[in-house]
Amino acid sequence: MGKHLRWLSMGSAIGMGLVLFMGALVTKTESGEGCGTDWPLCNGKFVPAYTIESMIEYSHRFVSAAVGLLVLGAAIATFMKLRHSREAQLFAYSTLFFTILQAILGALAVVFPQSDAVMALHFGFSLVAFSASLLLVIGIRTGAYVPSGSRGASGKGQAGSEDVHAPVMTRNMIKLIWATTIYSYVVVYIGAFVRHTESVGGCLGWPLCNGQVVPSLEGATGIAFAHRVAAVLLLILIAYITYKSGSQGNASKLLRSSARWALLLTVLQIFSGASVVWTLASDWYLLTALIHVVLVSGLFGVLCYMSVLAWRSYKKG
User: Which residue in 34, 260, 263, 302 could disulfide with 53, CB within 3.0 to 4.6 Å?
Assistant: First the structure.
């Protein structure tokens, strides 16, 4: 597999992660209007006046454009080097498609003010692009796109390759993983909606919400509480997957390892969400909010990888 493809795919994944991070920074610092209603220029200038808001917003645009070129290069390299792999091409082209889509949505949000519900989708599309780029990198690094008959005669890594190409899963596990991954996207969307509606202060205190187990479900409180309940249910689903994958002796090693990572990231994500509430009125709020975004992005990426393993198992069966 070509070195150019490896570097381009890795650069795309890292770049999309940076785009996600900077997008969250724009939202949290309320820098979305730092360039006014101009796009791609900033307040009518190629080099904007130095204000924190304009520099944050314009830097986000610049990085997004640079990463877009990397994503395009990775898609072309994938077409050239991995024509035999529909899965690799799916991830490369999906990354390109959702990168363009989120860029268009971001530009429209600058020129034409969008609703909070639509702006939450902006983060959601960026997350899908990041996850697709991550899956391409993982597939390349694990040898999943190397045809089984093309492995070296020494057989090095053969067991691992077979596990990647055809992981062992039950049909119930496959369906559960797919359902959990789809549901996790819903949880992420609700979280993005919390950010864009500035509802994070709707539930003060943790684990109770405004000192109550079930608060009044109106306005910001209802939105924030819905996100908490959704996150707890996601934790239960992932914990169950982790338990089932560990209790089945013939389960894929990759599945067991991925499930444990997903569980760890879910727990960390929940506590980082709690830290966002605890630091709401302090100087640490921005840091904890960004950590929360990083963790949930990693969690969704792991769940997407588990879904890919489930798909390979489904095709084998």
Answer: 34
